[in-house]
């Protein structure tokens, strides 16, 4: 009954064990006690240290029904202690709780000195130089002001690299957006739309000519398959391929391929017209690309390794036949086609040893 009405301020615990050597092991080696009175109960844990700690519950008063005992029933902890590290919500690791001492305070004593402190603060107290050690205390306010001024000056300096990076990223984004806009404008530009329209018209014209050829063939009682004119396209790595992409060569190909049957002769005008229009469209598209980017221009034929072979291709029967047809087309009003059929074709066959 000696300590009835006393406050429990702190507790000294000795929970040390030999196997808990590292700090991590000590923190995970713990146990708990129950301290209770008539009004409340505290379940406090402690790790395997030799240390003293206080209570979160500051108004625990010892009465006639106050007890302290080991937490055998594994009641949930109401308070943790500094250094304790619970593992898997385990209540106790040790089977004991080493209490060395309690720090108690008589509740009849005075614990609140706030009024006295205010009185002292308002009084002008003079300290003898012999006992005045205030010079050892740094001028905190001055330091605080100096630090704030330093931060005020240095913050913008620290931000400069970040602002530079942000500006560079903004410039990249701006450039990409401009390129996107330029490409979009090119796609929507009049020349591109015109090219698409011309290509669509060319394809539509071919369909119409196919239908006309089928109609004519049907009236003659001839079965006709879909027209698939053979066209050679440019290969940038071959001079021979570039010669074969000339209109003269492509027309010569079509003349030879379609002169082997009645059906071929029937569809020949449509095939030749298609090849001519297609070639014209491709050349126009190529020229416009060169205007936009001169680097896309094909190199001179002389620079290709197969240049000599390409020259032979230019002197072949197919090329000369197409060339003669183009000349006849230029002079159609003066009997160019008649001259082509009855004079140029037989002459070329004789020169190249071709049989009709």
UniProtKB/TrEMBL annotation:
Parts forming coiled coils: 166-212
UniProt keywords, alphabetically: Coiled coil
Domain of life: Bacteria
Protein name stated in the entry: XE5
Lineage: Bacteria, Pseudomonadati, Campylobacterota, Epsilonproteobacteria, Campylobacterales
């Amino acid at each position: 009954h000696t300590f009835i009405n006393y406050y429990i301020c702190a507790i000294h615990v000795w929970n040390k064990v030999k196997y808990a050597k590292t700090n991590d092991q000590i923190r995970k080696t713990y146990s708990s006690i129950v301290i209770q009175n008539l009004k409340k109960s505290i379940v406090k844990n402690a790790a395997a240290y030799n240390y003293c700690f206080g209570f979160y519950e500051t108004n625990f008063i010892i009465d006639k029904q106050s007890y302290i005992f080991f937490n055998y029933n594994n009641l949930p902890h109401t308070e943790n202690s500094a250094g304790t590290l619970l593992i898997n919500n385990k209540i106790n690791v040790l089977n004991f709780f080493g209490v060395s001492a309690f720090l108690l305070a008589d509740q009849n004593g005075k614990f609140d000195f706030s009024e006295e402190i205010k009185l002292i603060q308002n009084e002008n107290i003079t300290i003898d130089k012999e006992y005045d050690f205030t010079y050892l205390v740094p001028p905190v306010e001055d330091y605080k002001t100096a630090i704030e001024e330093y931060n005020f000056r240095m913050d913008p300096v620290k931000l400069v690299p970040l602002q530079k990076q942000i500006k560079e990223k903004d410039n990249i984004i701006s450039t990409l957006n401009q390129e996107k806009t330029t490409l979009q404008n090119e796609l929507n530009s009049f020349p591109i739309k015109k090219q698409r329209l011309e290509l669509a018209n060319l394809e539509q014209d071919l369909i119409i000519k196919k239908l006309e050829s089928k109609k004519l063939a049907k009236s003659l009682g001839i079965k006709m398959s879909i027209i698939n004119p053979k066209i050679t396209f440019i290969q940038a790595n071959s001079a021979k391929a570039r010669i074969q992409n000339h209109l003269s060569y492509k027309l010569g190909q079509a003349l030879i391929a379609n002169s082997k049957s009645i059906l071929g002769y029937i569809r020949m005008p449509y095939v030749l017209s298609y090849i001519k229009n297609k070639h014209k469209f491709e050349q126009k598209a190529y020229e416009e690309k060169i205007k936009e980017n001169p680097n896309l221009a094909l190199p001179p034929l002389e620079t290709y390794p197969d240049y000599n072979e390409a020259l032979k291709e230019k002197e072949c029967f197919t090329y000369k036949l197409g060339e003669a047809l183009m000349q006849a087309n230029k002079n159609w009003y003066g009997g160019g086609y008649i001259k082509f059929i009855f004079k140029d074709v037989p002459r070329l066959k004789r020169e190249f040893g071709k049989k009709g």
